[in-house]
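user: can you give me the structure for this one chain? tokens are fine.
assistant: on it. calling the predictor now.
[tool input]
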Amino acid sequence: MKFKYDKEYYLNVKMQPLAGSSFTNWMRLLVENRFCIDWRLIPRALYVTSMITFITPFRIYERIKFDKKLENVKISPPLFIVGHFRSGTTFLHYLMGQDKSLAYVSTLETMAPWVFLGSEKLFKEVVKKHLPKKRPMDDLEMEAGLPYEEEYAIANFCPYSLHHGWYFPKRLYYYFRRYVLFEGVNKEIIEEWKKWYIYLLKKITYKHDGKRILLKSPINTGRIKLLLETFPDAKFIHIYRDPYKVYLSTWRLYEKILPIFSFQHIEKEELDRFILDFYREVYKRYFEEKNLIPDGNLVEISYEEFVKEPIKTLKNIYKNLGLTGFEDAKPAFEKFVEKHKDYKPYSYTLTDEIKEKVYREWKFAFEELGYKK
């Protein structure tokens, strides 16, 4: 059965993240996907093309003005938040982003990664006009200056990102296998991926005068080894959640973002299989690779513990990772928590059929993370 979109989404063209890409990257993706775009979503592709054309002079200007300056920028060991989609990573990212001693990649910087150093004022207004007030999949606010997933920026730099599977969902598995697990990928592509990651973090470091960068990407949960190869002294916070809730909430995520982002349709059964496979493969990889993280550089917390006592949990994170600045940032943390104290997660119906399927597929994770059937 095809995963159908409401008619309103076919002319909703202005929220596609690739509008901040380069013409080269856009053409590579179109060729790679054989220009396979559903005819009802052609307006979205035309909008992306027009925005990329508009951005191009600003992109060229920024590279000429800043790339030489970025060559000698030293990146402080990053702080990575990892964990599956819908496990509390965003709320943790927003909350820790209140610490002014840390830098982060903002929504603006992910959507317009080519131009935020030289033309921030102009493109901040553009991004603000295109953002919804709330995230489509939950009730958390969206603003151009709030923390966001750097993976969107990587996807706008190069073809090596899972997010291109969100834009071209008929090839979800292709992008997942190649650019999350990096299976069957040659060394040159891996080095190219690292190069773009470093380039983004150099731009953020330059903008924020050398501060440590707080990053959040659920996709990185399956890339621990690669991240350590690139940033050996990086620190990690892993947040995890009841797998049943993760499954149901991940379905809601895709129900909300695919109609906004994609150029194609996908079968519901294939999407369900992908959700199950992604969680299983990424967590198996994480459990294998987390032991590579040096002692003192990894903290693991449960979503349930975090939302119950967020300030106490944060204090333990700072202490266990040897981070400074908690006391200075504590008033900002408390203010943010107070602002969101009435936030209520979406309610789901957990059927016996779903219970059996999720437990059968993810039993290893229930056992490893300490959740019961």
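assistant: here you go. The first strand starts at residue 79 and ends at 82. The chain has one domain: 14-369.
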